Amino acid sequence: MPPVAGERNRVLKINGYLLGCVVVAALGGLLFGFDAAVVSGTTEALKKVFQLEDSWLGLPGSFWLGFTVASAMIGTIVGSIAVGRPTDRFGRRTVLIAIAALYVISSLGTALPRHWTTFLLFRFMGGLAIGGASVVSPMYIAEISPAAYRGRLVAVTQFNIVFGILLAFFSNYLIAQMDLGDNEWRWMFGVVAVPSAIFFLLLFVTPNSPRWLVAQGRTEEARRIFRRLGADDVEGELGDIRASLDTAHHSLREPFFRKSYRTPILLVVAIAVFNQLSGINALMFYAPAIFSMAGADKSAALLQAVAVGGTNLVFTIAAMAIIDHFGRRRLMIVGSIGYILSLGATAWAFYSYGDAFAAAADAVRSGAAVPASVAAAASSGALTVLISLLVFIASHAFGQGAVIWVFISEIFPNRVRARGQALGSFTHWFMAAAVTWTFPVFAKLSGGHTFAFYTVMMVLQLLWVWFIMPETKGASLEEIQCKLGIE
């Protein structure tokens, strides 16, 4: 029996060409995750190579380690806020090509330096690429995707981010097993150049965003691309875009921070701030160090980081499968509850077993035998930390991790979407830099206090989602604009 019209349209809406374009654009997310997380396996080496264990300018070594790791995050702040106007002027694909080139240069540059300042420069360049990719990849995918599938297709970026994180953790573990000596950390950074080069080459066979083409007056080209992407109502799509742009009444260069955009601006800032106040980047960048704090040796800590990456991937896939049916708000509510329980348990473990962790670590460093009672307590605490953090990463993947880039890419109208996406990414990365930079300092003072603070922040997130966050599932980008009261 032939399919009815509605079924036929659903088949047309997601074809091989569309999927190919989504996968290529989402490689920006894979490199985002890989390049950001790879540093987690190098922190001990960076301390020794660049003498980051010593105090300098009256500040402790933990401060300078945090600054070194956060140097990429500082780059993401600049990259995410600076990419908006070039994306509107030159197009989404052109900017993605420039981002891919930055990934290649930064990965090779961080693998080769002899001096700390040179390393910081190339990590900053990598941060520029990460920040840019966090804006442009989900924006591009949102603009080529039909409403019925947009949540899942934009979430491919998040899938690739977490897959990149898993690859980074696994790559670090494998390289650590190769006994490469003093050059081990250089290989960890250098391998990122391979997927970066593949991303760069594949971008040349993807099209421009049809919504950007309409904004540039290139309607016929946009029409051809919509047809190749499988849109079943091309003229309807073009009409909606023209109405959204409304260039007769709104200039594409109009002020962004104005009353009419207040609601999406506040929503974007809130979701991005809460994303980082969960402590997710502390876990991503310092996972082996956190597990070492809980008594694991180097090899076990790196392997446990792989478990974190694997859990992240599995629950991201689960969220992708249901985000367009279950809705953004429900995923956020489930994730927030998981955050609160897991972070609270982690804080409790450090409060209850912190002395045992410290005693066991001191005994290992001095070569002394660890007393049986201390070893038993440290082992129980370490297991609690491992299980709690696996629940934490599952909660993140199922909630905030799956939703944030979809939500940010949806709630601004076409004419200011690039700037809105840039604001969301800027806020996200500003908070990421703050958390990444300060975590070594605060964790050294008290692991329990640090994770208790993250717990309280997630209680506030749950309240925000419950009372304020709107649902956007199933609506076209133009319908969301109307729902938020934006003319």
List the helices and strands and how they pair.
Elements: H1 5-13, H2 16-37, H3 43-49, H4 61-82, H5 84-90, H6 92-111, H7 116-144, H8 147-176, H9 184-190, H10 193-202, H11 210-215, H12 219-229, H13 234-245, H14 262-277, H15 280-293, H16 298-326, H17 328-366, H18 372-398, H19 400-410, H20 417-445, H21 447-467, H22 477-483
Helix pairs in contact: 2-6, 2-7, 2-8, 2-10, 4-7, 4-20, 5-6, 5-20, 6-7, 6-9, 6-10, 7-8, 7-19, 7-20, 8-9, 8-16, 8-19, 12-13, 14-19, 14-20, 14-21, 15-16, 16-17, 16-18, 17-18, 17-19, 17-21, 18-19, 20-21
Compact description:
The chain is built from 22 helices and no strands. With 487 residues, the protein is an all-alpha fold.
Amino- and carboxy-terminal Cα gap:
44 Å
CATH class: Mainly Alpha
The CATH homologous superfamily name equals MFS general substrate transporter like domains
Radius of gyration: 23 Å
Oligomer: single chain
